[in-house]
Amino acid sequence: MRLQLAIDVLSSEEALRLAQETRKHIDIIEIGTPLIKHEGVRLISLMKALFPEKTLLVDLKSMDVGEYEADFCFEAGADIVTVLGAADLRTIEGTIRSAKKHHGEVVVDMISVEDKVSRAKAVQKMGADYVGIHSGIDQQNAGHSPLEDLKLLSDKVNIPLAVAGGINLETLDDIVKCDPEIVVVGGAITGAKNPKKMARKIAKRLGKH
Q: Which range of residues forms the domain containing residue 179?
């Protein structure tokens, strides 16, 4: 079980500071969607150069031209990119094609997908590496948690799962029981008074330290 730090701040300087502070306790650094939109592809290369031992995920959430968008992220140093499960299957297929070409990986994000089980099975057959169970900020604000979807897919599919959406120390234990491959934590760490301490606590709960 790997810990992914989702960094959604809007400056490269702040992102790099958070990555450095939590470095010892996280496995995957995520350049979040707002961050990649705000700071651009150059941040991928910079992050990879400064943290070469970490897996670097770029949360593209591609909805179209998946291969094109994934190509320039992998070429800049990304190890994993995301594509939306709600996208056309050809977009997902293109993202997977790019990943194979660059020896990278793909997470298919199931945010707002109605039939998550069917889509998860379809993208697994296409060669996706992970399915992401994700409650977005707007969904969280409406009271939605990723836990029920995680339980459902844990029982119905055998592709590795990544789970994200408001996960913190209070909700973590129930998530861990479902044994996802990747646990994604953002605000609980990046918004903490002491991000390093919080990352260490969460990593310990995952049995990492």
A: 2-205
